[in-house]
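yo, Vacuolar protein sorting-associated protein 41 homolog is done. seq:
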Amino acid sequence: MAEVDQVTQSYEGSTDESEDEESEEEPKLKYERLANGVTDILQKDAASCMTVHDKFLALGTHHGKVYLLDVQGNMTQRFDISSVKVNQVSLDESGEHIGICSEDGKVQVVGLYTREGFHENFDCPIKIVALHPQFGRSSSKQFITGANKLLLYERNWLNRWKTTILHEGEGTISNIKWRGNLVAWSNSVGVKIYDASSKQRITNISRDNTNFRPDMYLCSLCWKDNITLIIGWATSVKVCVVKERDPTDLRDLPTRYVEIVSAFESEFHISGLAPLGERLVLLMYVNETLEQTDKEHCARPRLDIIHHLPDSYEEISSDALSVRGFQENECRDYSLEHSDGESLFYIISPRDIVVAKERDQDDHIEWLLGKKKYEEAMMAAEISQKNIKRHNILDIGRAYVNYLVDKGDYHGAARKCQKILGKNMDLWENEVYRFKKIGQLKAISQYLPRGDLRLRPAIYEMILYEFLESDYEGFASLIREWPGDIYNNMTVVRSVLDHLDRAPSNRTLLTTLAELYTYDQRYDKALEIYLKLRHKDVFQLIHKHNLFSSIKDKIVLLMEFDKEQAVNMLLDNEDKISIDKVVEELKDQLELQHVYLHNLFKRDHHKGQKFHERQISLYAEYDRPNLLPFLRDSTHCPLEKALEICQQRNFVEETVFLLSRMGNSRRALQMITEELQDVDKAIEFAKEQDDAELWEDLISHSIDKPPFITGLLNNIGTHVDPILLIYRIKEGMEIPNLRDSLVKILQDYNLQILLREGCKKIIVSDCLTLLKKMHKTQLRGVCVDEENICESCHSLILPTDIAKPFSVVVFHCRHMFHKDCLPTPGMFCNICSAKRRRPAGGLGEA
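structure:
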């Protein structure tokens, strides 16, 4: 249960002290005391009743006065009605007519602007008066008064007042509420509802709590809408709905009936009630028992918001109200009035009037701020920024930042600045200076704006100097992250150089200085530092800014740093740094020169041809495994020079290759057999050369070496007749694996026989097929007609006179000749013989 004093500060002069412990649940309503003219009135008088209109308030007092007030409590009019208590004030919907009744029996119904109306004095106290909602527009000018009888007053056609008794005989009428055509009233027995349109009483709802005096615990009535009536009496609450009766069930019954949709008991006594959307607002009178004396005393009244169920309710919120003089008040001293136009609730007591209203988004944000829930407050402000009036996102955000700073969460505060300060550069600079003052510039550095909107360069430089003095790594990170144009580059460079004077070998400072030089487009200086540090970004820097003219004298440094990247870069940019220039720069670094020329040769065998002679020595010295492939692939290498170098270094394999290439195969074979003593390599060499004399030399050299004989027996079967070798083996010589070698020879021989037979079968089959095809072709006739000509004399092949004898020779190639035109009587086609140089058989004569 929330305490009103902890929710609002509007209760000046409250006699109760607030409890120290605050509620964690946000209140649903906010409260303020109706002040101004009301304060003066209630200091001299006591409130007895009040009626609320959308435009103004009408307050009745115990001294017989009626005051018209604006919604702020300022008095606009005053009526001296009586010298005793005003029991009720009633207004019509237009707010132009007022009905007043008092304890001395006076009833007045007048126009606020016309002063014409009804004035009557009765001989008994009139407890209640109610004007027809449309009193000003209606010609009958109906209103109702309640005392011992319920009387309906209306004007007839003669402009006289007609009185009708609606009810009597059940005690004093204590309350009347008129809505549309329905009038609800309460007396000592219960609540009745009267339908003015049908002039019928449609229900009677009995009072439940008969133990409570009806004059001490008055019945509270309130129309939620045109058909829903809410009744509160003592501790009982009922919600009733007026419904239309089925026409078939009418008989002698009223056309309407009432259904009680909810009925429950409250914890305390009801002093007033009102609707709040689908919920109810209950004003309750509270009695508490003191533990020390076991005596009851009046506690502060409660205003609860509930959700009603068919036979119970759920409490939404509950507030204890510190109204003036609550210790002396009784249940009947309180009342609750509400405004239909907006959710305003007036709690009326003799010495105080408190206004409760639904909390808006501003109130919600204010409560969140009071609870230090800044994140939620910002979210609420962002969602409802068009509706809030007292708060704005910036102020909330800055309060949040201040809170985080006070709590010591500097990084959190700096992070929030990014969202809160946005594009307001002045506020950004103020925050930066505040962070500097508390020694937390590092915390805000990573969140500073550095896009299209930027602070003054001095702000960024101030932060850079802070890092430079205490954190080289952090300084380097900022230089990498921040654009180079948001601060004065030269000023920062000078500061870095000053620090390098004290720590000349600090890699972090040197790397950062190189980056600063790069931002300032002084690439030569940046390149020198990168090379000195052997930094991985040196090649990227060269490519990105086309610094090839600056590295012509730094090729050795680049090669020493990263051979692979340096060589690839140099070879990719031959148009900018020539091959001759690179070789010249590497003349004193022969191994690096070899790496460069080797990669050049791999890319193109001809580009560096003038350096091939030099490369022989370089390969021999630094990369022998690639010497032989180089000698094989190079067509510009001087063989004599290469042979001399290989013989000097006793490179047998390379020497063998060179001798073979120079035509000295027998000497090459001799080196293989004598120096390498590798029969397999010797056999492979002989196979490559495919020279019978070379095979003979190999056999002669191997005949006294059993391992060589074994190798020959295993491999020469397909090149040399093995019998030649076998006949020359000395009798009694022990040859390793001779049996296996002979078996292999026989297997190879059998395999050759099988292959030959298979090939023979295939050839025979193909020959037969082709022969059949040729025979079939030769059997075909050849058409000879008047259009054909002799291929020799080029005249028509057939004579014009068919009767004369003639001879024609037609060959299979389709060439035709007069027999006499052939140079020799042989059967050969002159044309095809000249082309193929082989005979072509004739088809025949005609």
